[in-house]
Amino acid sequence: MNIFSKFSNSQKTPHKIEIPSKKQLSEELVKEPVTLGDHLRRRRLKLGLYQKDVAIQIGVTASTIWNWENGWSSIALGCMSKAIAFLGHNPISCPEDLIVSLACYKQVNGLPLEELGAEMSRDPEQLPDWLSGRHQPNRKNREAIEIFLSKTLKER
Question: What pTM was estimated for this model as a whole?
Answer without folding.
Answer: 0.56
